[in-house]
Amino acid sequence: PLTNKREDEYGKDLTKFGREIIEAAKAEIPEDMPLMMRISAKEYVEGGYDINGSIEFAREYQKAGVDIFDISSGGEGPIAAWGKPGTHAAYQVPLAREIKKALDVPVIAVGRLDDPALANAVIGNEEADLVAVGRGMLRNPHWALEAAATLKKETAVPTQYADGFRR
Description:
Blueprint: H1 9-12, H2 16-28, E1 36-43, H3 51-64, E2 68-74, H4 93-103, E3 107-109, H5 116-124, E4 130-131, H6 134-139, H7 143-150
Parallel strand pairs: 1-2, 2-3, 3-4
Helix pairs in contact: 3-4
């Protein structure tokens, strides 16, 4: 509503464009392939959308064929340590939890989940079904292997890296 000032059908029905894209994608991909959609669940500006609006949008997208949602936030608003919501670890997890609860759909949580114990807790506490660790993996492409070692989880380590991950 903050930026879409159109007066045509796409301005009157803010989910129309998204639904059309979802339906077109579902018509092309194999039936057993899940369709994932990343949404920004909250803008941090006056007049921007909030979690309740995003739940309604996501509900329409789920009906159109989305199988799993990747939940981010921001959109038009600034996100910074001096603003809202801040950039503390897991700051977007509550948004993922709300979408998961409202739609009974798998969700991916994001937002400063670089610490393996924190990422594991998000999954273990059933706040999300998956976590995305973008910045952590940009800094360390072996993040998943190190997380598994930290959490003492069994994982397949490529032969080339086995000496670095011996227990």
